[in-house]
UniProtKB/TrEMBL annotation:
Domain of life per record: Bacteria
Active site (catalytic residues): 365
Highest classification ranks of the organism: Bacteria, Bacillati, Bacillota, Bacilli, Bacillales
Record's protein name: Glycoside hydrolase family 1 protein
Originating organism: Virgibacillus salarius
Keywords: Glycosidase, Hydrolase
Amino acid sequence: MTINFQFPEDFWWGSATSATQIEGAAKEDGKAKNIWDHWYEKEPNRFFDEIGPDTTSNFYHTYKEDIKLMKEIGHNTFRLSISWSRFMPYGEVNQKAADFYNHVIDELIAQDIEPFVNLFHFDMPFDLQQQGGWESREVVEKYVDYAKTCFQLFGDRVTKWFTFNEPIVPVEGGYLYDFHYPNIVDAKKATQVAYHTMIAHAKAVEAFRTYNDNGSKIGIILNLTPSYPRSNNPADLRASRIADLFFNRSFLDPAVLGEYPSELIEILNEHGLLPNTEVGDKELLRENKVDILGVNYYQPRRVKAKEYLPNPYAPFMPDMYFDSYEMPGRKMNKYRGWEIYEKGIYDILKNLKDNYGNIESFISENGMGVQNEERFLRNREIQDDYRIEFIKEHLKWVHQAIQENCNVKGYHLWAFMDNWSWMNAYKNRYGFFAVDLKTMKRTPKKSAHWIKHVAENNGF
Ligand code: BG6
């Protein structure tokens, strides 16, 4: 067999998940409520098919079998997150949860699968949200306690840590566009929340440096959406640059370079949106840059200049600076409604190489959500050739980036198995394994067999 796209020997092959999305057992063994449990109790009809976070993919009970499946399809790495509200409900360690995460980590290591552990994936404990959530500097300190406790308990075995997954999403969803709790629209709070998240991140990195001196690494996982202007005219270019500032550089720059872009500060200042800061914050950010960056990439952002000048009295929204547009002839994931632009993954990696010191990175999420995927079932297997094609075409560009010395070390599909995706619940299926929601049975899709060969051959 000829391998046309050969990856480096130590390339990380795996997949990603998050606690709330796969564990289930939302009320078992002392887990406290998080914002999703609360929001679902209040407004179940906001969730697709009214399926809530209590019914996710049952990993809490099936982790052993699931880890075996990971092994069977050639994973050498796997991303999970710790549920803060399970592990430290009300500030104290829940021993049953500590046992659970210890078992998961030990089982992964026993199967030669390196655990990549993320500390926060959208799941703020509800009692802390009531205390202000990320709006509150006290909650930042509570997060740092939680992070320290995780480093202490699991740091002897976990060598890849991540402070946050897609920290911009709770900002957009919770404080601007109404798809996360607390569902308010308030740009001033949004910038404060974004800022406090970065302070929490930097403080966790700082704490990590004092607990881990064994070559372990810490990073953050960002959803990067490369911004492409409609044309080279100055208004389109500016619109695209500002979208990039808001949606990428607002987290990428402080995490990797240790400071916010000055143009972003100027824009926020013009609107009176600068967050409250404390003495020493600047130094904290500057001195606690990440070792490694996770890149989640699904789709590009296509941007053009605003057609109409925004109403100067309307409250601030990032998109008062640009309009989105549909690129003619674009390729679509018609089952999810997102554009597919494989070269975007390469553009991100090149940008990291050219402008971010070639920081060590890996693709921490990339994947294809499909509605009603059971329609592709033949001979008891979902024939997801579209997903194989999607992964392959993205991997070709990752390969190209490696040829050009980009420091990218691995690829994780979103997701290991079908899982509960916040308001979308089980609408879009992403897994290598299909999950039957009645029986919780896992069935490999065609892509699971395909990735096994890719991982075993380190290429395709
Ligand atoms: C990613 C998130 O951005 O998108 C995941 O990190 C999420 O948590 C995934 O599940 C897919 O989202 P959706 O809305 O297509 O199901």
